[in-house]
Write a structure and sequence with these properties.
Layout (H helix, E strand, L loop, with lengths): L1 E6 L8 H14 L4 H5 L3 H6 L9 E8 L2 E11 L2 E9 L8 H15 L4 E4 L6 H9 L13
């Protein structure tokens, strides 16, 4: 059985291992920017979220048999919702965990009257692009960066 639990920013340490798996996935799969993912740091990334409160940020963890198997972090500010970070452990993918996490966060953003809801996905991450497409997300812009 999968359990979804909202946590506070103060409890975010419980996702450290999952966040690191997400970082490693991007480092290993990035064609052009693996070194950027290599240098990412959980503490620095999470510290950026310290400016939000429970009204503007939602953190949800997915648990199965007392083990954290996924998480989602979203923000909602001035009518704009953003899925900031989401990861499901590779061994648990394909079972609807990611979909449940995202849908819970979309509902939260809609409750906050977000008129625009987005997510940033690495252009080479085709499986994740397909995942979000199934949830009603479509490409809007392509941000390009020099190496």
């Amino acid at each position: 059985m999968i359990e979804l639990i909202d946590i506070s920013y103060e409890e975010v340490e419980v996702i450290r291992d999952l966040w690191e798996k997400n970082r490693q996935y991007h480092e290993n799969s990035s064609e052009y920017f693996s070194e950027l993912y290599h240098s990412m740091n959980f503490d620095q990334r999470i510290k950026a979220f310290s400016v939000f409160d429970k009204e503007t940020m939602k953190i949800t963890v997915a648990k199965s048999n007392e083990k954290h198997i996924g998480y989602c972090i979203s923000t909602a500010i001035d009518g704009k919702g953003e899925l900031e970070s989401m990861h499901v452990d590779e061994s648990c993918r394909g079972n609807g965990v990611g979909k449940e996490l995202v849908q819970r966060h979309l509902e939260w953003m809609n409750e906050r009257n977000c008129k625009v809801i987005g997510v940033t996905v690495s252009q080479e991450n085709e499986s994740t692009i397909g995942f979000y497409r199934k949830l009603g997300f479509f490409p809007n812009t392509l941000y390009m960066q020099q190496k």
